Amino acid sequence: HQDYTSEILCHSPLGRPIHLLQPVQFPSSKRGSKGHDAVGCSPAAFRKKLVDFRPVLLISARVHPGETPASYVMEGFLDALRQDCPASNALKKQFNIVIIPMLNPDGVIAGNYR
Fold it and tell me: Up-side HSE of residue 28: CA atoms within 13 Å toward CB?
């Protein structure tokens, strides 16, 4: 989704990617036609400007693969950050948000409980 940057943080013991997401500072509705945000630079460039100055807020889910409701909570959190509202915009401005939606993909795929 264009409101998040995505990269592979590492790989699980069985070789599955563990993804890391970070929301861009401004929602897509405030970006211009060239993908630039309200301050005139790309979301990646803007994120680099702020990353060293904001505290990190780390959000992760599915550490324990049997905790399936965590996937729904993560989906709701991602949807909330995507909104163009004062609360989500303030959160994105105040923190460098790092999201790991699934820390244990091997266990989730195997159907393990712990």
Answer: 6
